[in-house]
Amino acid sequence: MINEYTTRLTRENLNSNIPNELLSLRNEYREKGVPTILTDGLNELLLTLKMKNPSKILELGTATGISGTAMLLSLKNATLVTVEKYPEMQNEAIKNFDKFKVADRVTTILGDAIEVLQNLNEKFDFVFLDCNKSAYYKAYPYIKNLLNEGGVLFADNVLFRGYLSGEVETPKKYKSLVNNIKKFNDMVSADEDMVTCFFDVGDGISVSVKK
Fold first, then answer.
1. Domain tally, the chain
2. Would you place residue 12 in the very low, low, confident or very high pLDDT band (cuts 50, 70, 90)?
3. Neighbour-count burial of 167, counting CB atoms closer than 10 A to its CB (0-12 exposed, 13-18 middle, 19+ buried)
4. Exposure winner among 1, 15, 42, 55, fewest CB in 10 A?
């Protein structure tokens, strides 16, 4: 009952802050099996953004551009650098950035997140980590170096379907993936240079602030 109540309130809040056209598009992608951020996770992302009010955002995992568009619509003066590995996804995202008139504030990069991170030479106020989950722990040291002091790292899927908490038994095909996410979770929670909290929201999120 409590979960149903909070889910309803979260959905109502998101509907009041995101254009219906963007939410409908997100739902269409999900129905087609395209991974996009869950409703309560997206709401938490936008809430965290509003509190931080970053001017420069890095997104790892553009997908179809739904989260990137939502972030830029929420922050009218922010710019976004977003990285996507798959050309077809990047092309779809570019169309959506154009559609919602945020393209002039977006730099899209095609490539593997780890390789791109090694070659970025600018600093960011906020990083949204939502690429290959197995690579989170590999990406983390680079992300940390790219964050400004007081910068925020927001990571999605850190509880991955309940497998990390142990409430659901991990299928064999996901064991390696879950172990790699656990490496990231352990790494960021043990880092004395960061203040980190984990939340059982959506597919699990972590929010880390660089001291």
1. 1
2. low
3. exposed
4. 1
